[in-house]
Design a protein that fits this description.
This protein has eleven helices and eight strands. The protein is an alpha/beta fold. It has a single domain (13-286), classed as Rossmann fold. Helix 3 packs across helix 4. It starts with 12 loop residues before the first strand and ends in a 19-residue tail after the last helix.
């Protein structure tokens, strides 16, 4: 799981609720200060497995300093957007198709202009799903670009699949509190450590089980994304245990995407090297056309899980 370097809200950031046609989602909304003109763009930040909006907290100040409005959200069943569903309802509510539809609703709620979509790890798979879902439905594309941060072409590497499978087996038997004690034998002291524990206990267990299955079984949809024609940026640290960096390099080539490797970072460059990551994002967005190409009718398959 990503570890935010701090928890205090940066200047110009408010914690609130994003109201959408799919319900309300907890968010951190960071707006550039002292600008008479409109923001340079709006960024929607989607967290990964066991994560939350706070995984992007260290990106907010540098992004607003560059003139962007940045909105980080907790997904359905995550931290402060947590809801409890059971059985078949949970499988439907937390499947990739449902979570991708949530992201589409969030983008729509942010305004009329296309937003720059950023997804970390599992959040990258969900963000990709939102792009493909819009294409499959023939909708106007609400995204100006897509950035995949430490997120690969399909399911995670075999070692990570084993870890997620073990979590999925233990969680129903032991419960979140006992699993947390097993995973964190030496709890981190201080504000960040308290936050990490509080976030873990707030996550809906059913969401972790269903999204864990997504991480273990998601197919390679790179060809569909390449056909969509949206500008794509592939970002990673120089090492990654979830998807090997050479695999991310090959995915970037297949997408003809912009590629950035953040030196000194692992699976969470957004939290580990936020200034370098923010600089890479801003540099990419500067080269994105103001009006994205029409993406309707490119033949991407509908996501139904």
């Amino acid at each position: 799981m990503s570890r935010p370097p701090f928890c205090a809200l940066p200047p110009g950031t408010r914690a609130g609720r994003l109201k959408t046609r799919r319900g309300e989602f907890a968010m951190l909304d960071a707006v550039p200060a002292g600008r008479e003109e409109a923001p340079a763009g709006t960024v929607l930040l989607v967290p990964g497995f066991t994560g939350s909006k706070e995984d992007f907290i260290a990106l907010l100040a540098p992004l607003t300093a560059a003139g962007y409005r940045a909105v980080a959200v907790d997904g359905r069943g995550q931290y402060e957007s947590a809801v409890t569903e059971t059985g078949a309802v949970a499988r439907s509510a937390y499947g990739l198709g449902a979570l991708a539809e949530d992201v589409l609703a969030q983008a729509e709620a942010l305004g009329q202009e296309p937003v720059h979509l950023v997804g970390h790890s599992l959040g990258g798979l969900i963000a990709r799903g939102a792009v493909l879902r819009a294409v499959a439905a023939g909708r106007a594309q609400p995204f100006a670009s897509l950035t995949l941060v430490a997120s690969g072409p399909g399911r995670v590497a075999s070692w990570q699949r084993w870890k997620v499978r073990a979590l999925s087996a233990c969680l129903p038997l032991l419960g979140p509190r006992r699993v947390w004690r097993l995973v964190t034998r030496r709890p981190e002291p201080g504000e960040v450590g308290d936050f990490m524990r509080r976030r873990w206990l707030a996550n809906a267990p059913e969401q972790l089980l269903v999204t864990g299955r997504t991480l273990r079984h998601e197919p390679d949809r790179v060809a569909r994304l390449a056909a969509a024609g949206l500008p794509v940026h592939v970002v990673s640290g120089e090492r990654d245990g979830a998807w090997p960096v050479p695999l991310l390099d090959r995915m970037s080539d297949r997408l003809r995407a912009h590629r950035t490797v953040i030196r000194g970072a692992g699976h969470s460059p957004n939290a580990e090297r936020p200034l370098a990551t923010a600089a890479a994002l801003v540099a990419f967005w500067a080269g994105v056309p103001a009006v994205p190409p029409s993406l309707a009718g490119s033949g991407a398959e509908r996501l139904s899980r």
